[in-house]
Amino acid sequence: MASISTEAADLSVQRVRHSRRRTPWGTVIILVVPFLIVYVAFLIYPTVRVFQLSFTNSDIAGIGSYVGVANYVKLWKDPIFWQSLWHTAYFIILTVVPNTLLGLAFGLIVVRQKKVVRSIVLVLLFMPFILPVSVVTQIYLWVLSAAYGIINFLLGTKINWFQDPNWAMPSVAFVTIWWTVGFNILLFIAGLEAIPKEYYEAASLDGAGGGFRVFRFITWPLVWPVTSLVFTLQLILQWKIFDQVYLLTNGGPFNRTIVVLMYMYQQAFTRYKGGYASTISIALFVIILITSLTQIRLLRSRGAA
Amino acid sequence: MTARRTITSAVTGFLSVAIGLIWVFPLYWAVNTAFTVEEKTAQIPPSWFPAPILIDAFAYVIKYTAIIRWYVNSVITSLAITGCVLLLTMMCGYALSQMKFRGRQFVYIAILAGFMIPAATNVVPLFMFMNTLGMVNSYWGIILPQLAAPIAVVIYKQFFDQMPLELSDAARMDGGTDLRILFRLFLPLNWGVTWALAIILFIGAWNNFFWPFIVIGKTPMMTITVGITQVQSWYGIAYPRQMASAVLAALPTAVLFVIFQRRVAQGVAITSGIK
Predict the structure, then answer these.
(1) Which residues of B touch A30 (CB under 8 A)?
(2) Residue A162 pLDDT more than 50?
(3) Closest among A178, A176, A181, A134 to B247, alpha carbons compared
(4) Whether residue A253 has pLDDT greater than 80
(5) Region A238-259: what's the mean pLDDT?
(6) Is pLDDT at A236 greater than 70 in this prediction?
(7) What are the Cα distances from residue A103, in Å, to A120, A229, A230, B26, B135?
C-alpha cells in the first residue's frame, strides 16, 4: 500500500516538472524517429504484408493476385504441413523439458562450487552457446558421422544418426540441447543465488537433513519462477526451429524431420510460392502468438498472487 | 568434520570439472581433427591427439575458399549492426524515459508489442522488400532488418528510468540540452549495460544464420556463419578442412566470450528479462 502511494507521488512530481517545459519536438523527432523508421519498415510492415500476401498467389517477387482464402483451404488439406507441424511438436517435446531440467541440474552443480572451479565449470558448460549454429552442426556431422564418427566408435555402434528415420529427430534435439543449455544454466544460477541462505540454514537446524528433501521443499518451489521463464522462452524459441534441422538433416530422411519453418522456406525459396509460404508463416505466427500470450497471462497471474 | 567437508568439496569439484570437460569434448574433437591429416580421419581406432600437428587444413581453407572474404563480411555487418542498434535504441529509450511528449505511451506500447512478432515468419515479405530496394546480396540487405530490435529500446528505457530525477534536472538547469544529457551524462553512467548489450548484439549478429542465409545467394557476399556450410558441398566430405573452417568461424565469438565472460553473462540476464 505504502509503495503505491509513493509511486503516485513520484508520478505527480514528474507531471509538474514536465508541464513547466514545452515539448522540444525537434529533439524528440531526432531521438525517436530513426528507430521508428527501422522498426516500422523492417518489423511492422512485413508483419502486415505477410498477412496480405497469404491471400494471394504471389511468386517470390511479390507479383500475383488475390485468391481469397484458397491458400488457407489448401493449407488445411496439406498433409506435408500437418506432418511438419507434428515434427515441430515432436522436436519441442524432445528439447524443451529436458533442456530446462538439465539447465537446472547443471545450475545446481555450478552454484555449489568454489570460485575457480566454479568459473571453469561454467565456462565449459556455457561455451557451446556462443558458437554459431553452423559451427555446431559441422562439428556434429563429424562427431556423429556413421562410418568414422567418434561417438559410434565409443558406443560400438554403426548408427547413421542424422539419416536413420528413428534417430534423426532425437539426434537434432540432442545437438540443440548441447548447444543451448548454457543459456538456461545462466538463468538458473541467477535464480538459485536469489534464494536467501537463511532458508537453507533454517532447514539444516530443523534437521530437514537429506539433500533431496531440501531440494523438494525449498529449492524447487523458490526457483520455480525461473523454471517457468526458461520453459516458456524455450517453447517460443523452438517453434521457430529451422537452422539445425536444415543443416543436419535437410528435412530428411524422407521428410521425417521437416519442420514448419523449413516447409515455409521450401515453398518460398525453392518453389517460389510467396503467397502459400506466407499462409504457412501466418499459421506459425498464430501458434507463437498464442504461446506468448499464454506466457504473459501465466506471468501476470503469478505476479498478482 | 572440516576435513570431511574439504574432501567432499574436492571430490564434487573434480566431478563437476569432469562433467564440463565431457560436455566440451566435441569441441576438442573438432580441434583435434582440424590439425590432423585426412587419412587419419578414416582410421580405427582413431588417434586421440594430433601428432604431428599439421596446419594443412587451415592453409587449404584459407587459400581455396572465400573464408577471408566471409570473415570481412561478418566483421563489417556485425559491427555495423551492433553500433547502429546501440545508437538508435539508446536515443529512443532516452526519449521514452526522460521526455514527455504526446504519443509517448502509444510509441512505447507499439514497441512492446513488437516483442511478440517472430522475425522468422516475416522473411518472405522482407525478402521481397529487399528485392525491391535492390539490397539482396548486399551488406545493407544483411544489416537493415537486424536493426529492428525493440528489446534494446525497452532495456535502455528501464535503465534510464532508474536514474535519479535530480540528475537530469540539475543538468537542464545548467542549460544542458537532451542530446548533451544523453551522450555526456546518461551514456557514461550506463557504460556497463551498453557494453553488455554490445557484446550480446555482436555475438548475435555474428552467429545469425537464417536471415543472411535467405538474403545472400552469392558466395563472396556470405557471412562466415553461412559460408562455412559451403566448404562441405564444394569439396565433398573432407573433415579436417570442415573442422578447420569451423574453428576459424568460431574463434572471434569464443575469444570475446573468454575475455568478457562477466559481460556476456550480464547481457544474457538483461536481455532475457532476469537482470
Answers:
(1) 91, 179
(2) yes
(3) A134
(4) yes
(5) 93
(6) yes
(7) 17, 12, 9, 19, 41
Please list, in sequence order, all residues whose beta carbon lies within 8 angstroms of the beta carbon of residue B92, skipping any fewer than 6 positions away.
A31, A32, A34, A35, A36, B111, B153, B156
Per-residue cell: B110: 507499439
CATH number, domain A79-271+287-304: 1.10.3720.10
Q: Can you give the residue ranges of every domain in chain A?
A: 79-271+287-304
Q: DSSP string of B133-160?
A: TT-TTSHHHHHGGGG--HHHHHHHHHHH
Beta-strand (E) ranges in chain A?
Answer: none
Closest chain A residue to B112 measured between Cα atoms? Answer: A39
In chain A, residues 92-131 whose CB comes closer than 8 Å to chain B: 106, 109-110, 112-114, 117, 119-128, 130-131
- Structural domain boundaries of chain B? 2-57, 60-271
Each residue's pLDDT tens digit, B176-191: 888 889 998 899 989 9
d(CA B100, CA A16): 11
What ipTM describes this predicted complex? Answer: 0.92
Residue of A nearest to B84 (CA): A35
Q: Which of residues 30-69 of B touch A (CB under 8 A)?
A: 30, 33, 41-46
Using one digit for the tens of pLDDT, what is the confidence trace for B20-58? 999 999 999 999 999 988 877 877 788 888 878 889 899
Structure letter (DSSP) for residue B49: S
**C-beta atoms of B92 and A34 within 8 A:** yes
pLDDT at A181 over 70: yes
Indicate the SS3 state at residue A72: helix
Contact call for B121 and A50, based on CB within 8 A: yes
Distance from CA of B96 to the nearest CA of A (A): 8
Question: With 50 as the cut, is the pLDDT of residue A15 above it?
Answer: no
From the CA of A133, how many Å to the nearest CA of chain B?
Answer: 7
Closest chain A C-alpha to B78 CA, distance in angstroms: 13
Q: Chain B partners of A293 at a C-beta cutoff of 8 Å?
A: 116
Classify domain B60-271 by CATH number.
1.10.3720.10
The predicted pLDDT at position B48 comes to 85
pLDDT digits (tens, 9 = 90+) for A89-143: 999 999 999 999 999 999 999 998 888 999 999 999 999 999 999 999 999 999 9
pLDDT value of residue B236: 60
Note whether A39 contacts B96, CB cutoff 8 Å.
Answer: no
Quick check: helix, strand or coil at residue B46? coil
d(CA B167, CA B62): 53
